[in-house]
Amino acid sequence: MLHPWHDVTPGEHLPLEFNALIEIPMGSSVKYELDKQTGLMRMDRVLYSAVYYPANYGFIPQTYAEDDDPLDVLVLCQEAVAPLTLVESRAIGLMTMIDGGKKDHKILAVAVGDPEYNSFRDASELPPHRLAMLRRFFQDYKYLEGKSVEVDEIEPVEGTKAVIEDSLQRYSTHRRRGFRVKH
Q1: 55-94: buried (b, 16+ CB within 10 Å) or exposed (e) per residue?
Q2: 0.85 exceeded by pTM
C-alpha cells in the first residue's frame, strides 16, 4: 500500500504547481488528518465551533513544514473533494498562522481542473469576501476549544515559493535521516 505522504510525488512543476492530497472536503465540520505512521485517514475531532471548512484542505506530499506536519494547502474548487484524492493545484497565495507558538503556513491554491477557479493566478484576484472568509475560519475554528490562533493577512503568490521549497528541503533532510514522525 502506498503511503500518501511519502510515496506520492509532489509533482513536476514545483514550486507553484503541485499535487495536493485532500484530507478534508470543503463544507465539512470534521477534522480528518493523515495518520503519519500508517498513511490512513484518522478522524481527529468534530470542530467545536459552528463552522465548516471553506475550501478543500490537505497537504503537499513529501513536504515537512515548520509545525512538524506536511505543508498545508487550501484548494479552492467549486466542489467538495473526497479525502485521499489527489488534486493538481496551483499556488495563488500564502496565509500564515501562529498556532501553539509555531508558524503554520497554509498555501492557498486553486484546482487546475476546475474551470471556475483555474484562471486565478494570485489571491488578490479573488473576491475580498472569499479571502475574509478563509481568514475568519482559521481565526474562529478553535475558539470554543479555548485555544486561540493568530492569522496574518493573505500574501501574494510570490510568498509561496520559499515556503514550498523550504518544506520540500526539510522533508528531504528528515527523510534521509530516517526521521520518525510524531502522532
Answers
A1: bbbbbbbbbbbebebbbbbbbbbeeebebbebbbbbbbbb
A2: yes
SS3 72: strand
Contact 76, 109 (CB under 8 A): yes
The one-character DSSP state at 78 is: S
Segment 44-103, tens digit of pLDDT: 999 999 999 999 999 999 999 999 999 999 999 999 999 999 999 999 999 999 988 889
The values of phi and psi at residue 119, to 5°, are: -85, -15
Sign of the Cα torsion 84, 136, 114, 125 reads negative
Q: Is there a contact between 58 and 20 (Cβ–Cβ < 8 Å)?
A: yes
